[in-house]
């Protein structure tokens, strides 16, 4: 299935609170068995990660960060799980992170993001080629809205960055409009976009991005910085 | 027979009641009816408007589609003439077996200064503000309607801001709006840009409050177990969440004792929780299973689709919590039961402890508390209302005023079949399919 209704009561697993989340299952490599705790926490989230292409490319670039993809579609999530297991197997003897720093979870980020992450926990949030929800009355289902941005601001630390990319101009304008309006975000300029390696990876590495590339479509990008609370 | 009260609210001197689309005010010194208002709004008008708008939109869409196809295949003859471009919009009528549509008053709240009453009407999805005019100039009716503000989605909960200058409303779509009460103009609210804050879940309760340092907060709860605390009015700053519930939340209460720092929450869980919301701490959990299980009845049976093989699975939920300021306690109602629990906040405001459970002859529909009394609305054809003295925690026997109120209340129906829904909180339970 290409779409999933973010409003319905899916049978989802989510922790009662961020303290209830057992991250050791997702990143066993970073679990300190002696002290019984994680020695790193997730700081990068890819919301609606799809087939996981972005995470796979981010993994070696950010060896000191844990990266989590969230995806609402069951089959897609299963695929990404298998993909990561395979990648970890194939790269067992490599010097790099061996893809131990990425994983995926099935979840509804629009409802439950604060159940997973503490206040100010994240450094980067990616929204790559989100569902455009063209119909007017479906606009609340879009991943960027005025009201949801407050939740993203809550889990992002000061100076943290929201990355957006889409091939749908209408959706791009929508996201830019709402991010511009939100008092806790500041638009980053083209100089940033040119020099930031995440922007480059996001543009070329996701499956959706490659598809747009093949079809010679346009890609629209904007990044925003989390401002301090006034 | 008389229709039980769906909602009651008391200030001590006044008792407000809502049944179907009818709102009444009774004087608790005399038992006389001193105010009434009936919602006569015809919802077919708004539906008509909506249908017309949709019709126009579709026509426009078809036009643009047509012009596109015509430019491609110009010699295609227009086979079908559009039947009726300017026909009157038809009001869709529900077919046989469709669930009944109820238009009733969904919420009764008082402003902080207790000089206004704020209600929600179903018919036009409005929040309505009444000034309480005790001067008796208005033909003996103390309800003076000063604002009727329609909202884009069905409102679920409404309160006033700390200074009573605004109404703050949460809707079934999860959004919260605020509106100036004294602004004579009605706002055309836009669900995209106007919400003060929003959940991607049904909004079930909300409180606007402030701390000693005058910092104001808005606390919102939803069907997905969240209690969210945001600054007010800068509600884009989320301060914290109170995590711990595992089912929907139906009710939160902040008692005035202990500097407004305590919050009690309940809903679909088999416990209620005491929090210090300022610190974000869970102080205590009060388990309900042992107390309530002996009193559950067939109304609590889980719907057949989710039932077990023995057909004996029961579920219950907290439908109402009210603060009893005089005795540092709360009263808790489990939906569709005849028990009322008085729970003390003891141990220097750290613990929830059962003080008393009070049994009634019939199921309780709703409760409200003033400083001295708890009023209890009952599901009963002869005795709809009773009161409890907060000091003694005993049911008041031979209460002339209450009897007078019941005499002066006259929403009549022929049978129980004509009752509007009395128990609705259980519907909030999530039934996930996949």
From TrEMBL, chain B:
Subcellular location, record wording: Nucleus
Under PROSITE patterns, the record lists: WD_REPEATS_2
Q: Which InterPro entries match?
A: Trm82, WD40/YVTN_repeat-like_dom_sf, WD40_repeat_dom_sf, WD40_rpt
Q: In which pathway does it act?
A: tRNA modification; N(7)-methylguanine-tRNA biosynthesis
Gene3D superfamilies recorded for this chain? YVTN repeat-like/Quinoprotein amine dehydrogenase (2.130.10.10)
Q: Name one GO biological process term.
A: tRNA (guanine-N7)-methylation
The primary site where this protein sits is nucleus
* Amino acid composition bias (Basic and acidic residues), ranges on this chain: 53-71
Q: Where is this region: Disordered?
A: 53-98
Which keywords has UniProt assigned to this entry? Nucleus, Repeat, tRNA processing, WD repeat
User: Member of which family?
Assistant: Belongs to the WD repeat TRM82 family.
Q: What is this protein called?
A: Transfer RNA methyltransferase 82
Q: State the taxonomy lineage.
A: Eukaryota, Fungi, Dikarya, Ascomycota, Saccharomycotina
């Amino acid at each position: 299935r290409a779409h999933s209704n973010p409003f319905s009561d899916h049978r989802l697993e989510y922790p009662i609170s961020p303290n209830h989340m057992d991250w050791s299952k997702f990143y066993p490599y970073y679990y300190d068995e002696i002290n019984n705790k994680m020695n790193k926490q997730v700081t990068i989230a890819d919301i609606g990660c799809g087939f996981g292409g972005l995470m796979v490319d981010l993994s070696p670039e950010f060896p000191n960060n844990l990266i989590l993809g969230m995806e609402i579609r069951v089959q897609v999530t299963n695929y990404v799980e298998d993909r990561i297991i395979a990648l970890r197997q194939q790269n067992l003897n490599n010097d790099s992170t061996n893809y131990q720093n990425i994983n995926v979870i099935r979840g509804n980020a629009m409802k439950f993001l604060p159940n997973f992450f503490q206040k100010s926990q994240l450094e980067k949030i990616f929204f790559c080629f989100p569902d455009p929800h063209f119909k007017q009355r479906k606009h609340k289902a879009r991943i960027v809205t005025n009201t949801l941005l407050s939740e993203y601001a809550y889990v992002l630390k000061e100076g943290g960055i929201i990355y957006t990319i889409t091939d749908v101009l209408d959706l791009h304008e929508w996201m830019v409009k709402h991010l511009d309006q939100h008092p806790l975000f500041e638009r980053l300029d083209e100089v940033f976009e040119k020099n930031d390696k995440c922007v480059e990876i996001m543009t070329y590495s996701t499956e959706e991005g490659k598809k747009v590339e093949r079809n010679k479509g346009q890609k629209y990008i904007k990044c925003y910085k989390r401002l301090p609370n006034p | 027979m008389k229709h039980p009260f769906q909602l009651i609210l008391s200030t001590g001197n006044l008792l407000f009641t809502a049944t179907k689309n009818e709102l009444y005010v009774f004087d608790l010194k005399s038992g006389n009816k001193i105010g009434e208002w009936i919602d006569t709004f015809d919802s077919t008008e708004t539906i008509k408007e909506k249908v017309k708008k949709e019709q126009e939109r579709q026509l426009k869409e078809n036009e643009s589609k047509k012009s596109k196809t015509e430019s491609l295949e110009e010699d295609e003859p227009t086979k079908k003439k559009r039947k009726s471009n300017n026909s009157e919009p038809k009001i869709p009528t529900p077919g046989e077996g469709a669930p009944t549509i109820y238009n009733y008053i969904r919420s009764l709240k008082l402003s902080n200064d207790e000089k206004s009453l704020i209600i929600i009407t179903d018919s036009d999805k409005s929040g309505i503000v009444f000034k309480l005019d005790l001067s008796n100039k208005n033909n003996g009716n103390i309800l003076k309607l000063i604002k009727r503000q329609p909202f884009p989605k069905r409102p679920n909960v409404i309160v006033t801001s700390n200074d009573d200058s605004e109404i703050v409303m949460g809707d079934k779509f999860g959004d919260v709006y605020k509106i100036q009460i004294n602004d004579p103009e009605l706002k055309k609210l836009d669900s995209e840009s106007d919400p003060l804050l929003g959940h991607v879940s049904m909004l079930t309760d909300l409180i606007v409050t402030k701390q000693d340092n005058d910092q104001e907060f808005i606390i919102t709860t939803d069907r997905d177990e969240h209690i969210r605390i945001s600054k007010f009015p800068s509600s884009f700053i989320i301060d914290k969440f109170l995590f711990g519930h595992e089912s929907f939340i139906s009710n939160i209460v902040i008692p005035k004792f202990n500097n407004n720092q305590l919050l009690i929450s309940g809903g679909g869980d088999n416990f209620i929780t005491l929090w210090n919301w300022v610190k974000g701490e869970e102080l205590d959990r009060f388990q309900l299973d042992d107390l309530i299980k002996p009193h559950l009845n067939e109304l609590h049976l889980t719907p057949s689709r989710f039932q077990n093989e023995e057909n004996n699975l029961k579920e219950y939920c907290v439908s109402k919590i009210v603060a009893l300021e005089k005795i540092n306690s709360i009263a808790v109602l489990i939906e569709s039961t005849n028990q009322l629990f008085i729970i003390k906040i003891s141990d220097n405001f750290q613990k929830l402890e059962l003080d008393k459970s009070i049994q009634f002859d019939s199921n309780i529909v709703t409760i409200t508390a003033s400083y001295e009394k708890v009023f209890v609305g009952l599901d009963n054809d002869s005795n709809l209302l009773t009161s409890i003295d907060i000091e003694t925690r005993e049911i008041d026997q031979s209460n002339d005023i209450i009897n007078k109120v019941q005499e002066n209340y006259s929403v009549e129906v022929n049978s129980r079949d004509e009752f509007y829904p009395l128990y609705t909180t259980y519907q909030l339970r999530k039934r996930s399919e996949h």
